[in-house]
Amino acid sequence: MNTKMSDNVKKIVEQNNTAKRPHRHLSPTTDGLLHPPFLPDELIFQILLCLPVKFLVQLKCVSKSWKTLISDPKFAKTHLRSITSITHQRLFSSRLTGKLGKIISFAVKPMFENPSKPTDPVEFSMEHRFRILGSCNGLLCLFDTEGGYVKLWNPSIRYESKNSPTLRFFDLVSWIWL
Question: What is the pTM of this model?
Answer without folding.
Answer: 0.47
